[in-house]
Amino acid sequence: MNTAKSKILILVLLFPLWLLLYLNLESITDLLIFSLIGITPKTHLTDAIWFFVFEVPKVLLLLTLIVFVVGIIRTYFSPERTRKILGGKKLFVGNVFASMLGIVTPFCSCSAIPLFLGFIESGVPLGVTFSFLIAAPMINEVALVLLFGLFGWKTALLYMSTGLIIAMLSGYIIGRLKLEKYVEPWVYQVKAGHLELEEEKISFSQRISSGIDAVKEIVSKVWIYIVIGIAVGAGIHGYVPENFMAGLMGKDAWWSVPVAVLLGVPMYSNAAGIIPIVQALLEKGASLGTVLAFMMAVIGLSLPETIILRKVLKLQLIFAFVGIVAVGIIVVGYLFNLIY
């Protein structure tokens, strides 16, 4: 049996085991906590421990499956192909394409400068480039899988759609404002001689290997953030009074949305660390719009990415970028507090 077939066979055999574990996690957690360990039920400590023991394997199981699938999808979107897709697109049409590509392409804040240079080199408009740079970190497979696992498909879809709208409109506004003069002059002097290289053909076996490699790389990097985030969420779940969070981040506090964004902008965390905390805040009475605004500010306005982009952007454009996205997030927060 060749390597490709053996990989597929192993995956086919592992999936039923994955499904069995995922569907029975609640029963397994009850058995472990109450029967085997014998912890007294209905106490603050028990609630916190149960939350932690249940959520950690649940999130890791979901993350492993989705990262594998997205890892395969990503092999169809190399940086060169992404630039070719976006190159030559008109304003707004390009913003739509760029925002949607940001969901599935393997780029993070550490890729900000090479991506920015590559897009500008290949003639991608500045506003379209920013749509991609906003969507790529904000709407990622980690965030979507965690939201799906913790809150269901409606919340995950809500997050993705609002993130797309923010990325599209923010990039469109930046493009209409004609802010190219605030890009560092040296950026336009870089030549793009490598863009015409022919892309290497990838076999299905290699795509499967890419999915496995993505699981190894991403899960190994974020598992500690998942554990820490769930531990913090467990503490909130078990010990923080509901009235406290409802008063601080509830619908009745009109100032809660802008304050949540202001707090989130300078913070740095990835989706793996922040979303379990979001779950605990919602369970304790915080409103969906306020918590969603906080999460988007933390993930979408990454402080490291902003610092990295200073190498290619002048401060005026960085402030415009942060301000436009922050306003969009605040509007989304108020909108969902009004609806839900």
Molecular structure report:
The protein is mainly alpha-helical and 340 residues long. The chain has one domain (39-190, 208-340). It contains 16 helices and no strands. The chain has helices at residues 3-23, 25-36, 44-74, 79-86, 93-104, 112-121, 126-138, 141-151, 153-176, 204-239, 242-249, 256-264, 271-283, 288-300, 303-309, 315-339. Helix 3 packs across helix 8 (141-151), helix 8 packs antiparallel against helix 9 (153-176) and helix 10 runs parallel beside helix 13 (271-283). The longest helix is centred in the middle third of the chain and has 36 residues, at 204-239. The chain is flat. It starts with a helix and ends with a helix.
Write the layout of secondary structure elements.
Elements: H1 3-23, H2 25-36, H3 44-74, H4 79-86, H5 93-104, H6 112-121, H7 126-138, H8 141-151, H9 153-176, H10 204-239, H11 242-249, H12 256-264, H13 271-283, H14 288-300, H15 303-309, H16 315-339
Helix pairs in contact: 1-10, 2-3, 3-8, 3-10, 5-7, 5-9, 6-7, 7-9, 8-9, 8-13, 9-16, 10-13, 12-14, 12-16, 13-14, 14-16
